[in-house]
């Protein structure tokens, strides 16, 4: 900055050089890497405000809302808007219509930012209501001092944006987010240019109307002139693939091409000896070489018709030969056999233009249209008096009005036909409407010169000498090639022609010649015609290349460091590149710093979803304020993107200039089954740095996933149906068991629950089940005592007092989110035990209260109520007597599955002995295990020696002990061998097989139903665990997923059949018990009736005996009276 207080200070510069990257000839806009082929596809469709002279500056075209529409001037530079006249809420807009066919749009403009723009102020560009650019302009260096404004530096900013666009209209708006008045924040605009990109045949990009684009003009290679074509001799092809050949050709399936079939009537040697003249005799038109009287090679512009062996014109090649008036490729369907044809019903046709239609047809817009009236005077006829009522003879009469006039009266035209406009009583065609009128040669809808049609007249390409109908007929000079009917050079053909300066047959930059133009070598300061004479400072000229000198202590732009030596291992390698795990400040001060690594780890597979973890070996940070999740690119190698979905979940995101332990969880869902394990590719497009600014060593990582667990909707529906059947069976068994409990059979419920719990633990076998089996296992939650009690008490949500922290498990236990903390699962058993104890205590207290009430003197007057109390007392006594030690053992055995599982899982989990809860958890674990061992020992010690009793009786007595040992074995294998897949399944199969043999040998005639239930249950468990070897990881590559699903149906059938058979047994028990109760009631009622009859008979007998006795007593009394009387008389 100039200091005005120092008069002697001054500044200047010398050796100023200005280098320009010129666009290839014929290009209106380009970037440095564009070739002539690339940039010629851009066409200028709109320009505004480009005048330099203020007096010539025109403001028409764009609409300015909430701003001054007059032109402004800033430091001799004219603009629209400007200082203090446009700013907050100002909208500059334009509506473009009738845009030619295109695929992209490019908008360029020069934007003048005036005065105090803030960080929150943005420039915005919208096209068709969609925000295309939202740019923060306050970050640009402001180097112009108050050219318009008065308080701040001003700056001209070149804005350019390219985006996809294909519709024929565009609504463009230029907006901003300014929040202050025009006097503080304003802007100006000039030099607006809008380009569109049209498709170019030969750029190897299929766009718009193109069917294909192979980048060449070779016929019979599948794609010619950007349209699908067959190989030579092919009769039927689809999408460049030949399906069959013409007669006389051989179809080669492995190459999908046609080979000419040669039928030799004579040997070739004989033919060559006899006939060495290849002239045709008799002559064949347009044939160049004949053999055996048949043409085998045609002249140029002709091809050999394989059916009639005649040479016919090459049509549909986009080249109009001397014999052709058109080419079917260009004018299809208006071209027939390379001759321009008119529409139907045309009598007089001249090069595709109909001049006269047949009778009863009228000519409109080059079409013959049928009319109702016959002999109507044709539009090309001028209506004289001879026409009269518009009915004319079959002649071409002269008319008064214009040929294309629709409404004419007295020689004055009032309205023209469509696509014509009325000017000076004449109908003038509209050039650019894509409709060729009679006074137009062509109409391609644009005003691009040298493209074959310009202002609706044929236009020849540059450098074309012979041109017909806008198509160049020249044979190109050496070095030129006919491309899109234009003789153009091809850079890289080793021939210098046209505007090419050089040719080195490569596209390598900075080798002296790039894109056939001279180019200075990289880091060259002075060069002429690609030859370098002087290199930049720090570089040495060797064989026309400026090579950096590594080890000179001067760091060039090709060096990452230069510590003055060429030794590796000190942070700067012998090639002056920073070595891994080193950071070099200012290019020479290198310090060892461990670089962070990208680490991708597989987590688990849950149903159709797989989960992976993205993390880093160190805490990392961002050096740019962006959302880092958007820079992570995830894909599955060699799999179509439509066949999978990947979701990223932030655990800890990368922060701007703040180091954190960044972590992301990736969820992958694959919508198909694959024969191999898919590979997940994780690519980071933005660099991360450690606290010491060390970058990541690797920004790409690969992770092998499991085979997808994909199931069709139909398979899921079947699995859900089986699951529903399982749930209904289990709930029905529970309901029947409750009824049996109310009817007095409580042991049946515990026995069933104990047997069915074994199914619920099959899901913990650490193999990859198909999704169908996973869906079925959801129903097993009804079987587990823990799940049953949790669903009843709803402790997980309501009992906040008993909530415990979650301790993560491992492998399959982690998949099912099993809490390894024993207190979490043990709380339900505690509550149930307290409930049973409370019920037992309340029963004892109620029995005591009833005893006191029986002896109460106040109730002695109510004998019926006392008898009711006595009946209830007897029931309570019976209930209390049933709750003995055997009942407690039975209850513990029913809950033993969950108790053993929780204890062993707790024992195998990690413990932090610095925390008191670890000791509490282990104490509960050991108490449970001691109780279980005590139960086993008590069963063993209470049995008579084997030699003194029957063998079957021995097995029957030992059954609870063996069952408890089996439970411990199964759960131990599940817990301790969770990471040993093969060993786990083999051991479980062995235990189940051994116990099945034991059950079969335990022949109990007293409990036959119990015996059959056990055989059904153990057989299904043994077959299920034995079949899980098909789910081993080592076999997944050899078995298809559909086969695994088929096996899962069989496995589900085994499990469901157990539930259905148990349900049948319980229904039978319920029916039998109800029947017995009914029979007992009937017997009791009959006994009561019989007792009443006996009582009545006995009462009758007593009455008769009493009457007899009274009669006898009466007679006796009378006899005694008479006897006394006789005695008295005798005295």
Automatic annotation (TrEMBL):
The UniProt record lists the keyword Iron: no
Residue spans crossing the bilayer: 733-753, 830-850, 887-908, 920-940, 983-1000, 1012-1032, 1052-1074
Lineage: superkingdom: Eukaryota
Key words of the record: Disulfide bond, Membrane, Repeat, Signal, Transmembrane, Transmembrane helix
KW 4Fe-4S (keyword) present: no
InterPro entries given in the database record: Furin_repeat, Myxo_disulph_rpt
Protein name: Uncharacterized protein
């Amino acid at each position: 900055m100039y200091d005005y207080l120092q008069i002697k200070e001054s500044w200047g510069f010398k050796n100023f050089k200005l280098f320009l990257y010129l666009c290839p000839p014929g290009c209106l806009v380009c970037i440095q890497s564009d070739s002539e082929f690339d940039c010629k596809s851009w066409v200028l469709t709109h320009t505004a405000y480009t005048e330099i002279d203020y007096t010539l500056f025109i403001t028409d075209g764009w609409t300015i809302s909430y701003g001054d529409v007059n032109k402004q001037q800033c430091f001799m530079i004219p603009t629209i808007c400007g200082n203090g006249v446009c700013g907050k809420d100002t909208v500059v807009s334009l509506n473009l219509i009738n845009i030619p066919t295109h695929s992209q749009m490019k908008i360029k403009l020069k934007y003048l930012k005036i005065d105090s723009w803030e960080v929150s102020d943005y420039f915005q560009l919208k096209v068709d209501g969609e925000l295309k650019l939202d740019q923060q302009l306050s970050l640009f260096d402001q180097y112009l001092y108050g050219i318009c404004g008065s308080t701040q530096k001003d700056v001209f900013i070149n804005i350019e944006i390219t985006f996809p666009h294909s519709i024929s209209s565009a609504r463009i708006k230029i907006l901003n987010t300014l929040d202050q008045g025009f006097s503080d924040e304003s802007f100006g605009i000039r030099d607006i240019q809008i380009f569109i990109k049209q498709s170019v045949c030969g750029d190897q990009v299929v766009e718009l109307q193109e069917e294909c684009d192979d980048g060449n003009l070779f016929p019979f290679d599948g794609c010619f002139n950007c349209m699908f074509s067959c190989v030579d001799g092919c009769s039927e092809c689809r999408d460049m693939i030949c399906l069959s050949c013409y007669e006389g050709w051989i179809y080669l399936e492995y190459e999908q091409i046609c080979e000419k079939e040669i039928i030799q009537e004579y040997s070739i040697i004989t033919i060559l000896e006899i006939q060495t003249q290849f002239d045709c005799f008799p002559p064949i038109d347009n044939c160049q070489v004949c053999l055996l009287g048949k043409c085998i090679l045609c002249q140029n512009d002709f091809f050999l018709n394989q059916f009639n062996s005649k040479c016919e014109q090459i049509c549909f090649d986009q080249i109009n030969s001397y014999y052709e008036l058109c080419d079917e490729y260009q004018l299809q369907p208006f071209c027939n056999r390379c001759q321009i044809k008119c529409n139907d019903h045309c009598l007089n046709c001249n090069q595709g233009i109909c001049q006269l239609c047949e009778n009863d047809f009228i000519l409109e817009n080059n079409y013959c249209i049928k009319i109702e009236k016959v002999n109507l005077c044709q539009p090309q006829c001028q209506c004289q008096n001879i026409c009269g009522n518009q009915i004319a003879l079959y002649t071409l009469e002269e008319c008064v009005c214009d040929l294309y006039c629709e409404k004419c009266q007295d020689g004055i035209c009032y309205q023209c036909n469509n696509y014509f406009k009325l000017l000076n009583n004449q109908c003038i065609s509209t050039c650019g409407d894509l409709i060729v009128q009679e006074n137009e040669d062509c109409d391609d809808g644009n005003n691009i010169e040298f493209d074959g049609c310009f202002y609706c007249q044929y236009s020849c390409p540059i450098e074309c000498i012979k041109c017909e109908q806008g198509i160049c007929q020249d044979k190109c000079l050496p070095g030129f090639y006919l491309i899109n009917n234009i003789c153009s050079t091809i850079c890289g053909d080793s021939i210098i022609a046209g505007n090419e300066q050089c040719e080195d047959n490569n596209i390598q930059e900075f080798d002296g010649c790039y894109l056939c133009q001279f180019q200075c070598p990289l880091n060259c300061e002075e060069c002429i015609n690609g030859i370098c004479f002087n290199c930049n400072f720090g570089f040495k000229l060797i064989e026309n290349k400026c090579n950096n000198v590594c080890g000179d202590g001067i760091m060039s732009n090709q060096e990452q460091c230069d510590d003055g030596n060429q030794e590796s291992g000190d942070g700067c390698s012998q090639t002056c590149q920073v070595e891994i795990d080193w950071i070099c400040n200012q290019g020479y001060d290198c310090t060892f710093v461990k670089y962070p690594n990208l680490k991708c780890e597989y987590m688990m597979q849950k149903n159709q979803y797989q989960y992976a973890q993205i993390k880093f070996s160190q805490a990392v940070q961002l050096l740019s304020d962006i959302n880092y999740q958007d820079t992570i690119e995830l894909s599955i190698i060699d799999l179509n993107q439509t066949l999978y979905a990947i979701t990223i979940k932030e655990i800890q995101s990368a922060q701007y200039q703040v180091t954190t332990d960044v972590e992301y969880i990736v969820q992958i869902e694959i919508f198909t089954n694959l024969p191999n394990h898919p590979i997940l590719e994780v690519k980071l497009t933005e660099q991360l740095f450690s606290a010491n600014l060390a970058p990541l060593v690797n920004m790409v990582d690969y992770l092998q996933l499991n085979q997808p667990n994909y199931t069709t909707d139909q398979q899921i529906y079947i699995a859900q149906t089986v699951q529903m059947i399982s749930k209904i069976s289990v709930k029905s068994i529970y309901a029947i068991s409750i009824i049996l409990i109310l009817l007095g059979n409580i042991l049946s419920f515990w026995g069933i629950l104990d047997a069915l719990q074994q199914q619920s633990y099959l899901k913990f076998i650490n193999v990859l089940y198909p999704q169908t089996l996973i869906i079925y296992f959801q129903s097993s939650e009804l079987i587990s005592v823990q799940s049953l009690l949790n669903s009843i008490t709803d402790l997980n949500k309501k009992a906040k007092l008993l909530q415990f922290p979650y301790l993560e498990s491992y492998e399959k236990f982690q998949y099912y989110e099993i809490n390894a903390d024993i207190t979490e699962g043990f709380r339900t058993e505690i509550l149930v035990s307290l409930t049973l104890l409370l019920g037992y205590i309340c029963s004892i207290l109620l029995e005591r209260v009833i005893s006191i009430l029986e002896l109460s003197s106040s109730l002695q007057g109510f004998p019926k109520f006392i008898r009711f109390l006595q009946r209830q007392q007897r029931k309570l006594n019976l209930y209390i007597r049933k709750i003995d030690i055997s009942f407690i053992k039975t209850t513990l055995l029913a809950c033993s599955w969950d108790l053993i599982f929780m204890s062993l899982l707790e024992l195998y989990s990690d413990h932090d002995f610095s925390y008191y809860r670890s000791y509490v958890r282990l104490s509960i674990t050991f108490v449970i295990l001691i109780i279980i061992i005590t139960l086993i020992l008590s069963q063993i010690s209470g049995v008579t020696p084997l030699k003194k009793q029957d063998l079957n009786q021995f097995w029957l007595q030992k059954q609870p002990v063996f069952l408890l040992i089996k439970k411990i074995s199964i759960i131990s294998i599940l817990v301790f061998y969770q990471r040993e897949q093969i060993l786990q399944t083999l051991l479980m199969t062995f235990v189940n097989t051994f116990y099945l043999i034991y059950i079969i040998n335990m022949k109990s005639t007293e409990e036959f139903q119990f015996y059959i239930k056990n055989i059904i249950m153990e057989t299904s468990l043994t077959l299920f665990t034995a079949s899980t070897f098909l789910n081993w990881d080592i076999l997944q590559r050899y078995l298809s997923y559909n086969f695994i699903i088929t096996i899962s149906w069989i496995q589900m059938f085994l499990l469901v059949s157990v539930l259905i058979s148990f349900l049948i047994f319980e229904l039978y028990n319920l029916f039998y018990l109800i029947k017995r109760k009914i029979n007992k009631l009937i017997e009791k009622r009959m006994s009561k009736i019989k007792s009443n009859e006996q009582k009545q008979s006995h009462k009758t007998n007593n009455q008769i005996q009493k009457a007899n006795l009274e009669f006898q007593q009466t007679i006796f009394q009378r006899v005694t009276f008479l006897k006394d009387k006789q005695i008295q008389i005798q005295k």
